[in-house]
Design a protein that fits this description.
It contains eleven helices and 29 strands. It has helices at residues 157-169, 181-191, 207-210, 218-227, 266-271, 276-297, 322-339, 381-390, 408-414, 427-430, 437-444; strands spanning 18-21, 26-28, 31-33, 44-46, 54-62, 65-75, 80-86, 89-96, 99-112, 115-125, 129-137, 174-175, 177-179, 197-201, 231-235, 302-305, 345-349, 365-370, 397-402, 421-423, 449-450, 465-474, 477-485, 495-500, 507-511, 514-517, 521-525, 538-545, 558-561.
């Protein structure tokens, strides 16, 4: 198979892009077309209308290594999605933005073997045309430039600390997360470790659901999870304020967050602030603000992800396009922050397309929701790279929902640094297929993944960093060195390090710090002689655990200057 650029061989310098023609690939359920104009080579592949339709393209004689993958396509019938397989294994999904002409989409990265490789594009959300794929060597990623300052200048100390904790761990560790407290408990019972983040939902607090009899204990769940030392992340499946169709066949009232289940027009409501529909928008926001205020009053920071998956259009807040969705997000931000004083929130935007982005001034974290086929544990590099580019690598990038959990080993190989993941509930975590038991154990016991017992005191973090290292055995336990570094620009006159600890972990002795233990955690404070640290200076203290975590695991302590 010949590349369509001037390069004779695929072994080219970094930055050079080599294309391979789709029509020369192995076709299954698809055909070669030529009616559209602007394609390269002798045609393109069309007819992606059945689930198993695919084209497999061979890349010969690769030197091996990490490559950026590009898909050249046309999608005249609206935005679509194609699934990528590398050498027969799942490699993530690629959004194909609507286009009447052939254009390119960033498909993330592929780790090619030396020699021959195959890239398969399989129908996902079909009716698109594939012209070619392109590969170019991936340059090494430079240091991230992620900051840890919330967009809300009045953010609470706990919210500031949580964002700084995420920023300081970004690129080194990924926090584990699980949606729904029932599934959180299932994970803990099954793999012996609990996630660091509990995913919760304001759905049943929506007024149009409450008036039909729903109730919720998600705020109580959040308060209890905070007491255990965990992070709370809330989404809101916002039942439309009015206009619920309430008919069988997918339009029931309890599906009122779906576009198909409501006649509510968000664009019309926002265009007329004097309307009843606009008043109901504010009523709903105020109702949820009252619930979030309970968490604020308890000093609980919240990762807050409203209007999720807006660009998909399947939820009513995204049904009228990007401008109403962005306007509604900003209305909610102003109402919750300025009117209700909810300064305990970290604001998460949850779309990839730049046209939908509401702006750097109202977003702390950007995120994607990915649901590749069951058992596809690829790192989802395409979605990750698009989000890094969206914010110019200045904000944490998170996997706010996922089916299969990306393999941490592949994440490291692909240079994909998700800040956290949040596996969806029910079968997505427990069916043994989407995520096998072996895979869950692999993830939850991986040194790059932070679980609840390894989580630092994220409500008291900033001004320094702490690194945990097992340096040897001591009797029946482990000797741990914790190195504290002043990573700021000003001298420190003291520091405090803290973390949760595994159930049953026993601390026998310590050196070079004042130590306090609680039922679920520990904290260490500087002594007089090692309290002062110049910018860049470090000091160490030591912990002797008689029953410690295995040396392969790496708790991620918090560090607070003061």
């Amino acid at each position: 198979m010949s590349p369509v650029t001037a390069h004779a061989e695929p072994e080219v310098p970094a930055g050079d892009l080599v294309f391979y023609e789709a029509e020369e690939g192995e076709l299954r359920g698809v055909t070669v077309g030529s009616a559209a104009t602007g394609f390269s080579g002798t045609g393109y592949v069309e007819g992606f209308d059945a689930a198993d339709d695919q084209v497999t393209i061979t890349i010969p004689d690769s030197p091996g290594g990490l490559f950026d993958l590009t898909v050249r396509y046309r999608a005249p019938y609206g935005s679509k999605v194609t699934s990528v397989l590398l050498n027969g294994e799942g490699a993530g999904d690629v959004p194909l933005t609507e286009s009447n002409v052939f254009t390119t989409a960033d498909a993330g990265r592929v780790l090619l073997d030396p020699g021959e490789n195959t890239v398969t594009l399989r129908n996902n959300w079909g009716w698109y045309e594939i012209d070619a794929i392109g590969v170019s060597p991936t340059p090494p990623r430079g240091p991230h430039r992620v900051g840890g300052v919330p967009v809300n200048p009045r953010a609470t100390p706990e919210a500031r600390s949580l964002l700084r904790y995420l920023a300081d761990n970004y690129g080194e560790y990924t926090l584990s997360g699980q949606q729904d407290m029932g599934s959180v408990a299932w994970v803990e019972d099954t793999v012996g470790r609990a996630p660091a983040i509990a995913g919760l939902d304001m759905m049943d607090y929506s007024p149009s659901r409450v008036e039909r009899g729903t109730s919720s204990r998600e705020v109580e769940n959040a308060l209890a999870w905070h007491e255990r030392g965990g992070v709370n992340a809330f989404v809101w499946h916002w039942n439309a304020p009015t206009g619920l169709i309430d008919e069988p066949g997918g339009k029931e009232w309890w599906r009122g967050f779906y576009t198909e289940a409501t006649t509510f027009d968000v664009a019309a409501a926002l265009a007329d602030p004097a309307s009843e529909e606009y008043r109901l928008l504010l009523r709903d926001i105020d109702a949820i603000a009252a619930r979030l205020a309970r968490l604020r009053d308890a000093n609980v920071p919240v990762i807050w992800r409203p209007l999720h998956e807006a660009e998909g259009g399947w939820f009513w807040w995204g049904a009228k396009g990007p401008e109403p969705a962005k306007e509604l997000y900003r209305l909610m931000y102003d109402r919750m922050v300025d009117h209700h004083g909810l300064h305990n929130l970290l604001w998460v935007w949850n779309s990839l397309d730049p046209a939908w982005y509401p702006g750097d001034d109202v977003v702390d974290i950007v995120s994607a929701d990915t649901y590749p086929p069951a058992g596809d544990h690829s790192p989802q590099s395409g979605a990750y790279e698009r989000l890094v580019e969206l914010v110019d690598d200045t904000k944490p990038v998170a996997l706010s929902e996922n089916g299969p959990i990306p393999d941490p080993d592949l994440m490291r190989a692909y240079q994909v640094d998700w800040s956290y993941f949040t596996t969806w509930s029910g079968d997505f975590v427990s069916d043994g297929v989407t995520n096998s038991r072996d895979h869950l154990n692999h993830v939850y016991h991986h040194r790059d993944v932070v679980t609840l017992d390894e989580l630092g005191d994220f409500t008291r973090h900033g001004g320094c960093t702490a690194v945990w290292e097992v340096i040897g055995d001591w009797d029946d336990g482990r000797l741990v060195r914790v190195t504290v570094t002043n990573d700021g620009d000003e001298p420190l006159s003291g520091w405090r390090v803290g973390a949760n600890r595994a159930a049953g972990a026993q601390l026998d002795d310590h050196w070079n710090a004042r130590l306090e233990t609680t039922g679920t955690g520990w904290s260490a404070e500087s002594l007089g002689w090692n309290a002062d640290l110049r910018p860049g200076q470090e000091t160490s203290f030591y912990l002797n655990w008689s029953t410690a975590e295995p040396s392969a695991l790496s708790p991620s302590p918090s560090c607070q200057a003061g």
